[in-house]
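quick q for whoever's on today - can somebody do inverse folding on this one?? i tried earlier but teh output was garbage lol. tokens:
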């Protein structure tokens, strides 16, 4: 098991592929752990170094008391990449992971060659909405919200498959404190101005059935970044890497190739 001891937090991560290969770092969404990416890995080309991690308060990483700031989450990604000696990586962030990508691109452009903003935005929801969610989790645990979250994460067709229960289990088994901590970070984040100043090569991915960050919201964020490329995966909700792994990997592979990463 790989653990990066960053002092105030210990992050659980996986580091697969040759150490000297082009690096791709994956940052997952609220309520998920690094297994979020399991289904796309078989469809990615060989010869990549693939790093996935559980952000603080999720998976096997440590879970400091809430609230967390977006700055802390960006700092965790930055310190993990420094710890691993990564440079010139492609950073793939989904939802809150995409907010981390935007912040990291502003703070440490030296670490990144390009980024993928998947099912994310410069600002997601309102402070009030996130406070309601935090209050609901404090009151009834993540379970109280789980059915509504499944409707945003997945298309109707996927919700009828046997896999649904496993993803729901992933959600409800995350620490409530970590979920609340990251919700507070999202509530306090508005990257509209800073993301508008980015020039990093960017692929934005949306899911046609995404109930959390609908395609128009993702498109608006992509439009802030000159020459970004926007794609919609049809028939997928908020987690297209789970519902449509082959399509997701195809888009990612083409982007990596375009930027000399494979
Ligand atoms: O709505 C959800 O629960 C999905 C989500 C919003 C931000 C994030 O990271 O996941």
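ok took a stab at it. sequence:
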């Amino acid at each position: 098991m790989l653990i990066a001891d960053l002092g105030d937090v210990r992050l659980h991560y996986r580091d697969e592929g040759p150490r000297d290969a082009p690096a791709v770092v994956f940052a997952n969404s609220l309520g998920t752990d690094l297994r979020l990416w399991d289904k796309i890995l078989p469809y990615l080309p060989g010869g990549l170094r693939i790093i996935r991690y559980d952000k603080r308060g999720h998976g096997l990483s440590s879970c400091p008391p809430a609230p967390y700031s977006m700055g802390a989450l960006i700092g965790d990604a930055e310190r993990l990449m420094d710890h691993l000696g990564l440079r010139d990586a492609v950073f793939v962030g989904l939802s809150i992971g995409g907010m981390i990508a935007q912040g990291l691109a502003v703070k440490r452009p030296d670490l990144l060659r390009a980024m993928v903003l998947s099912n994310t935005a410069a600002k997601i929801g309102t402070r009030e909405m996130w406070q309601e969610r935090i209050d609901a989790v404090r009151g009834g645990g993540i379970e109280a919200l789980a059915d509504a979250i499944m409707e945003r994460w997945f298309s109707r067709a996927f919700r009828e498959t046997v896999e649904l229960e496993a993803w729901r289990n992933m959600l409800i088994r995350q620490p409530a404190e970590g979920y609340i901590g990251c919700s507070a970070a999202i509530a306090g984040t508005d990257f509209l101005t800073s993301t508008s100043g980015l020039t990093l090569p960017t692929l934005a991915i949306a899911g046609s059935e995404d109930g959390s960050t609908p395609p128009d919201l993702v498109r608006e964020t992509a439009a802030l970044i000159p020459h970004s490329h926007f794609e919609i995966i049809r028939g997928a909700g908020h987690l297209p890497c789970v519902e449509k792994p082959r399509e997701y990997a195809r888009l990612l592979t083409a982007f990596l190739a375009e930027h000399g990463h494979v």
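fwiw The chain has a mean pLDDT of 98. also The pocket of LWBT4IAB is lined by residues 29-30, 95-96, 124, 149, 152, 186, 212, 238 (CB under 6 Å). so keep that in mind when u check it
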